[in-house]
Amino acid sequence: MTEALHVVCPHCDGVNRVPQAKLAEAPKCGRCHDKLFTGEPVALDAARFARHVSRSDLPVIVDFWAAWCGPCRAMAPIFARAAAEIEPRARFVKVDVDANPQLAQQHGVQGIPALFAFAGGQVAARHSGLVDAGVLHSWVDRFAGVKV
User: Fold this and answer.
1) Segment 60-73 mean pLDDT
2) Which among 9, 29, 32, 69 is annotated as catalytic?
């Protein structure tokens, strides 16, 4: 029997149980029937962020960013490419710090871009500033435990 993982839908935030062996087979949400993995970062506000981080069995890789930030704009294509390459082993999300300052403050974000890896609902790794895709890959390799 294959272990089922909790995966939060990027569209309706429904929590789905997906057999680990089926992650790469384009699973759909049981509630809204959209794809659970889009290959793109998901923009989240504070309420949605809490649900994704607390209910997902997959690592959640977060980019705290702002539209006016030059390094954030440079990080965006790197982050998007990593999401396309790595999903469904992890969920990639973006949090706009201007729209969600309380969330940035709650996690001690002092400079942006700020990248975090959450595993088991807890901060597992963090980095301020630009990174290459290799760092994101290594975080997922370290925290996923999911082979797809």
Assistant:
1) 98
2) 69
